[in-house]
Amino acid sequence: MAKTISYITGSELLTLKERANVAIVDVRDDERSYDGHISGSLHFASDSFQDRIPNLVQAAKAKGKDTLVFHCALSQVRGPKCARRFADYLAERKEEAGIKNIMVLERGYNGWEASGKPVCRCTGATCKGGC
Ligand SMILES: [Zn+2]
Which residues form the Rhodanese domain (predicted)? Predict the structure, then answer.
């Protein structure tokens, strides 16, 4: 049973991201390193996404995340595609992995930044959030 993918606006995400069960998954490639990112987001670049899906499942499980919000720069191609691949991966393995919601951020990172929402520019491999 394939999961459906829903869309979420930046304003909705701003509220939602404070919850402990929500993970933001940034699938941009190199842009993340120079454009900044949403605080606390995980980076799973689209070019290696397929191979790293098991890592993402593990990361979500380990941190008790049941809602994953995918985005790329505009959330038109890479974001929805990776969200779909992730949903298909779970469906093929008949594995729920505790994931209840798979979402895509409307307008992506560029829309988020353009509407003045907070961005983080830390350079660590893993964003610790809180900025
Ligand atoms: Zn950061």
Answer: 18-121
- Count the domains in the chain: 1
User: How many CB atoms neighbour CB 3 within 10 A?
Assistant: 17
In which residue ranges of the chain is pLDDT below 70? 1-2, 130-131
Question: Is residue 25 included in any domain, yes or no?
Answer: yes
**pLDDT of res. 129:** 75
Give the Å distance between the CA of 109 and the centre of ligand 1.
Answer: 13
Q: Which residues contact 113 (CB under 8 A, 6 or more apart)?
A: 35, 36, 119
Catalytic residue at 72?
A: yes
Sheet holding 101-105, edge to edge: 5-8, 101-105, 67-71, 22-26, 42-43
